[in-house]
Design a protein that fits this description.
153 residues; alpha/beta; Barwin-like endoglucanases; six-stranded mixed β-barrel; 5 helices; 27% strand
Length: 153
């Protein structure tokens, strides 16, 4: 601050630039009009075991607690916005069915190649589908990265 407690033009520009950068980063963590297919991981039948599911993120997350692995439904992630590869593992998404507004929070446990999401049928896809998605073979969704509500193990 300049004398008298006034913010100088240079500092104001810096603050504005930082706010713009933060807004751009936040916007890069969400997408809409995304294709979400489904997969039968069936984690409830395999004790939420990432190794048994042959999930990409098992390398880093298979040793996490049962409570951590089972807190959210599972998804593979290959969406157009957000981190990829190991950096996406364990992160959470709020996924919303664009047609109905129904939403659920899921944990990223795998990679995919469909350009969107591959939701576990039982723990995620069926929770936001009204029957049309399974008939069509996919949903159109929006997603945003959200805090999983726990410390990273």
């Amino acid at each position: 601050m300049a004398a008298g407690g006034k913010v100088t033009g240079g500092r104001l520009a810096l603050v504005a630039a930082l706010l713009c950068a933060a807004a751009a980063m936040a916007a890069a963590q969400q997408a809409s009009g995304v294709r979400a297919t489904y997969n039968y991981y069936r984690p409830q039948n395999i004790n939420w075991d990432l190794n048994a599911a042959s999930a990409y993120c098992a390398t880093w997350d298979a040793g996490k607690s049962y409570a951590w692995r089972s807190k959210y439904g599972w998804t593979a992630f290959c969406g157009p916005a957000g981190p990829t590869g190991q950096a996406s593992c364990g992160q959470c998404l709020l996924v919303t069915n664009s047609a109905t507004g129904a939403s659920t929070t899921v944990r990223i446990v795998d990679q995919c190649s469909n350009g969107g999401l591959d939701l576990d049928y039982d723990t995620a896809f069926s929770k936001i589908d009204n029957g049309q998605g399974v008939n069509d073979g996919h949903l159109t969704v929006s997603y945003q990265f959200v805090d999983c509500g726990e410390p990273r193990e």
